[in-house]
Amino acid sequence: MTLTKNKKLNDWIEEIKKMCQPDNVVLCDGTKEEYDRLMARMVESGMAIKLNEEKRPNSYAFNSDPSDVARVESRTYIASVKKEDAGPTNNWIDPVELKKTMTGLYTGCMKGRTMYVIPFSMGPIGSPIAKIGVEISDSPYVVVNMHIMARVSSEVLDVLGKDGDFIPCLHSVGKPLAEGEKDSRWPCAPLEDKYIAHFPEEKTIWSYGSGYGGNALLGKKCLALRIASAVAKKEGWMAEHMLILRFTNPEGKHYHIAAAFPSACGKTNLAMLQSTVPGWKVETVGDDIAWMKQGKDGRLYAINPEAGFFGVAPGTSEESNPMALASLKENSIFTNVVVTEDKDVWWEGMGYDCPGGKGTDWKNNPWTQASGEKGAHANSRFTAPASQCPVICQDWENPAGVPIDIFVFGGKRTATVPLVHEAFDFEHGVFLGATAASEPTAAALDLGNVSLRFDPFAMTPFIGYNAGDYMQHWFDMGQKLGDKAPKCFYVNWFRKDKNGKFMWPGFGENSRVLKWMCDRVDGKAGAVETPIGMMPTTKDMTLDGLDMDKSVLEELLKVDVEAYKKTLADAKAYMAKFGDKLPAKLKNQLEKLEARLGQPVCQ
Ligand code: GTP
Ligand code: SPV
Ligand code: MN
User: Fold this and answer.
1) Is 188 a catalytic residue?
2) Atom of ligand 2 nearest to the CA of 220
3) Which of 109, 169, 222, 265 is an active site residue?
4) pTM (global) more than 0.90
5) CATH assignment of 239-307+394-597, given 3.40.640.10, 2.40.30.20, 3.40.190.10, 3.90.228.20?
6) Rg for the chain (alpha carbons), in Å?
7) Which of 83, 99, 296, 496 gives a 20 to 30 Å CA spacing to 172?
């Protein structure tokens, strides 16, 4: 069967068909008809729930298998030819061996199912910066999510033409059906058979056994981060786990900020922030991934390769993130939330009690709020088109991207790390990014019992090559950008007091911190020098209307030298595992910090 004009694609489809043995093959076109048809079929089979058309038009809810609720880092592999090229932070299996194992699993794995061929573009279709992928999947849930998250269209095939190149992304839920066997609501394979595999030299992705998020929507973490980061290193650009936002001051001046926080640590929220500083406004360019290249003027330009948001549902409320709520008003998909009696969605932290007090929980069981059990899974998600965000930036699809003024790093830290500090220079900024650490979140299944993990640039699970080389790449980019490199900052919205209460109000109030950063870029705001970086005093920040105790804010702007000495020791131990791949400049930064921590604190 000849499906497309592209020989490489036709050959690949034929090869996968032979291996996976599906009942049918469907070439997807990304149209609304296709979306509606697949949704109707999934509603019929019981996999999808059609939500109330009045309350949530054209929207659907899904419940996953209770074992398949997040990314699985222990089953994620960088199968480079040489182990050293995967480095100390990635799982590695020899690619020949891994292909053999996975071919065993893939053989006959689509029996009883339809094989969907999904042509997609990360970045605007046809633009010079976009990358074309084709995902083959046996999950109709993946198809409808890809419609929102990537740009799925037959136009992608037109761009590919007869001999254009694409990144092959193979996905199966890993549950073939025997003759007459009834499908489960959410088919998937057991943990030990799950593989999220990347072959960076071949630019190929093989994913088996999971239907959830980053494990299955292969344009996102697999292509746009793991494969793209390896390509970016070679070609001299950057693929990062970063939100992109435009912050505009009352005079209309734009500042573009790219921020790297680990999974479920506040990117979507910051990207859509409602500023509490009068006259300042945030617009969203992206909420999860940034591809950045140096422009002709020497500055760094960022694009968002995605087309939608795959955002954390719990905690999303009218108060915390009204722009996310507006984005998911219609045409959205919900996974692992509560479906209320009147067929709308609800989750913990939505800002009001579950209407009627009961519904169907994420495990698909009858549930009452009074039971005290969580109704939505902590990593439940919404899939919503970015174009529906009321504050989407008019340049969000501009292939030229937006020029980045500021990099922000951070994570969830209940102790030690102050609200904000600024790097002394770009190399110190790379040090701040490289030593970023965070408490684990529900976005990954299997981070173990650690209370804190180092997560350089929020990229630990997403670097497609050796993390030592990756950190060197940051220094190299700094060298290339010279005095046009973005200014670097480190933030922490998550400090808690001894009663376990967040000390900083966060969300919209984070605009006060962003404004201080912009004022620093313009040389307008003050700061004091501390051993860890430049920091504002309460006098340097715009605090009008902020309802919090000044003493708490002062506490948030203090450096605890003793605690930092301990952190430094942990950072050194962590860096030791990079061996000779640890950039000399990073070693040098560690030594400098050590020396500064010996000094009395100025503040
Ligand atoms: P991924 O999609 O997994 O990459 O996550 P993300 O970085 O986009 O995280 P997101 O913005 O969805 O935030 C995750 C959780 O952090 C949500 O439950 C938010 O309510 C919470 N959160 C975000 N910003 C703040 C903040 O400023 N303060 C506090 N206390 N919580 C926040
Ligand atoms: C993350 O875990 O960082 C996410 C969600 O953005 S997923 O797409 O599942 O990786
Ligand atoms: Mn993410």
Assistant:
1) no
2) 8
3) 265
4) yes
5) 3.90.228.20
6) 24
7) 83
